[in-house]
Amino acid sequence: MNENAKSENYNSSQNQTDNSSEYRVGIDIGGTTATVAIVSTKGHILGQATTHTRDYKTPEDFTTALAGLIVDLKKDLPEGTRLIGVGIGAPCANSSTGEIEAATELPWPSPIPLRRLMEERTGLPVAIANDANAAAAGEMLFGNARGMRNFIVITLGTGVGAGIVCDGHLLNGVRGFAGELGHVTINRHSKRLCNCGRYGCLQNYCSASGVVTTAKQLLSENPDAESILRDATELTSKSIYDAAVKGDKLAIETFRITGEWLGFACAQYAAFTDPDAFIIFGGVSRAGRLIFEPMEKAFEENTLHLYKNRVKFLPAGLPGADAAVLGAAALIG
Amino acid sequence: MNENAKSENYNSSQNQTDNSSEYRVGIDIGGTTATVAIVSTKGHILGQATTHTRDYKTPEDFTTALAGLIVDLKKDLPEGTRLIGVGIGAPCANSSTGEIEAATELPWPSPIPLRRLMEERTGLPVAIANDANAAAAGEMLFGNARGMRNFIVITLGTGVGAGIVCDGHLLNGVRGFAGELGHVTINRHSKRLCNCGRYGCLQNYCSASGVVTTAKQLLSENPDAESILRDATELTSKSIYDAAVKGDKLAIETFRITGEWLGFACAQYAAFTDPDAFIIFGGVSRAGRLIFEPMEKAFEENTLHLYKNRVKFLPAGLPGADAAVLGAAALIG
Fold first, then answer.
1. Which DSSP string do the residues of B62-102 spell out, in sequence order?
2. Burial (Cβ within 10 Å: 0-12, 13-18, ≥19) of residue B104
3. For A36, left (φ over 0), alpha (ψ -120 to 50), or beta?
């Protein structure tokens, strides 16, 4: 059944301090790969296995394979180990219905009743959420938001997502679509068309492709400005970052503008849930101070006095490679 | 002690169906008057008394007087009646700290430890909130949001406030300043200076004075347009409404623009908490369809597809005169 799956068990030195016999299962489902991990109550990964999403003809087969991986991984755990639930992070996952809706990355028609299928196959409680909400749960349980009851995680990747925690609760909303902050219109007069069909969403400025658009715009508006980006065969947010690190002024300006838009947006977002912190996550956020400095400056310049100098901006606290499965595991309360 | 207070007890016919012996106290504190009411579990007012806020030299004297009014009102209730708590709606009330902060309307220096003072004087649990949050609590318990777990109340008055309920919780935030939606920048290029020191807040477009500013702008931009507003000695949102009802095109256009800004704002706000409904409350909202029609149109035109045709716009469900004390009473869970 799991011939296309590989599994790996390891013990980190940290596990030695982690004596609980209760474990969570965290599953990260992507368009190519699905990863299953057994996670301790302190956020250590005890075992991990992967399989290829597209190798399965139906969601039923796929979830049967995932359940098989859990059983395989559990074999290597000590006697008396108890799994308390399965958390799944997946694109377009609706926490309220337990279904995946219109996920173009996955090879099966929507809606996919993922929660029900996994509950039937494992006999365990199952929670599902989109990537940004799983990231928020992970930061709260294992990461930089430990002990915080009010924060907003913003993920800057192919798109821009958000997970909002207010008064200790991860917000879902009536249809499970709370926290779509990447699609707040931050520039009503923008000519940047979003994949949602609207113009001027935050995502058009702060996603990986938003960064590239900003760089291209700067190159075209400043034909005389020297920049190593001018000679690049293909611009990506990574290549623009590499140029910025080398001191390329136009690349640095690209991230300054990106951070400024994000800071302006967060200045507005603070008025909704009065957060302690924004936690900035995902590929584009790796630009570090190139994006954090202009972001924090724009936040302080644009926010209401009630929030001024009172909101922290933090990078994600979960290790990049494991963040997705740890966040998924954290969905089990 | 309460010589400047008058009290009044009445029974509505509705009370006959309301047999619980548990009652809440709702108190609405304004700059001029404070109103104390005894409220049944079904939202009927059993007795009501008022006093003049400015007649008291200290918050200690003021809260002693309020506690006296509660005792007076309780005398007239049936034997066996139990008061389960006191909810207070007041300007700049911080739900988290229980204090009133920087309320320019009140005659005492801030912060005022209102919750502690009232708890000491009544021996009852006390909850305090600002007017918009109290309105949200009232709509959820007694009004148009009964049975709803996700909605946003927006109050259009001297200012613009909001109370956000998500997943059944009234959002507070880390410092109790969640829901300051009147101070979200909706027009970054605006020349309208807000009392918060920033430009282009929702409040500058949709408060009573925002409506007047829009009308004045239309009058000045259209010098040839006929309008009875041109002859008015003083413009108010009420006089503009009266003109609109008489068919004055410029007055109607004023409310259309107001509704359009509000609908655009709500289109963005939906992305935070994925609400079932917006409930629009306060003086300006009395313009009814003059403001609701353009608001709903702008919402549908500007919101993300996830929320399109799925969010209701409702007027407040609580009777105007009693809304404040009913909302305050509803703060007691």
1. HHHHHHHHHHHHHHTSPTT-EEEEEEEE-TTEETTTTEE-S
2. exposed
3. beta
Q: What residue type is B317 in one-letter code?
A: G
How far is B264 from chain A, CA to nearest CA, in Å? Answer: 9
- The whole model's pTM is what? 0.89
Residues of A in contact with B164 (CB under 8 A): 272-273
Cα–Cα distance for residue pair B69/A68, rounded to 1 Å: 68
Q: What single-letter DSSP state applies at residue A300?
A: H
Mutation for A interface: B304, B310, B311, most A CBs within 10 A: B304
The ipTM is: 0.88
Check residue A111 and report its DSSP letter.
P
d(CA B178, nearest CA chain A) in Å: 4
CB B132 within 8 A of CB B171: no
Measured between CA atoms, the residue of chain A closest to residue B305 is A196
Give residue-wise pLDDT tens across range A288-321.
999 999 999 999 999 999 999 999 999 999 987 7
CB B185 within 8 A of CB B176: no
Q: Cβ of A196 and B304 within 8 Å?
A: yes
